[in-house]
Amino acid sequence: MTANPQEGFVNSAGVQLHFIDWGGGGQPLVFLAGLGGTAQCYRGLAARFAGRFRVVGLTRRGHGRSEKPDSGYDLDTLVEDIRRFLDVMEIETAVLAGHSFAGLEMPRFAVRYPGRVTGLIFLDALFP
After folding, report:
1. Helix crossing, 102-112 with 75-88: angle to 10°?
2. 3-state DSSP call for residue 111?
3. Are the beta carbons of 35 and 77 closer than 8 angstroms?
């Protein structure tokens, strides 16, 4: 487990997205915050999983330290942001865990990229 998680940015079609990497080994576990939230909301929870998973969290565009472009807030673009994040992080398959609005992104991602998802965890999330 990483005592001090690493933070950084990935480029998604010209938009800088903030992420946190709590480290760990094993199957990747990607936390997605709810609308208005950031990856920071998983601070306490994510570190608990780093013993069994490689744990990362993504802050969607328009929130927190991620860039706030004038457009690109439709569900399809947000799903592509997740895909690009996984690509940059060299994560081939992952468990996606999300709260609130992420409950709409996760199943759309799973339908579009079924080979990249090993599970979905809905944390008091919207469900289509």
Report:
1. 70
2. helix
3. no
In angstroms, the CA 126 to CA 90 distance is: 28
* Spatial separation of the C-alpha atoms in residues 80 and 102, rounded to whole Å: 13
Predicted TM-score (pTM) of this structure? 0.94
pLDDT in tens, the chain (128 residues): 456 899 999 999 999 999 999 999 999 999 999 999 999 999 999 999 999 999 999 999 999 999 999 999 999 999 999 999 999 999 999 999 999 999 999 999 999 999 999 999 999 987 66
**Closest by CA position to 120, among listed 88, 103, 59, 112:** 103
Q: Give the E-state strand segments of the chain in sequence order.
A: 6-12, 15-23, 28-32, 54-58, 94-100, 117-125
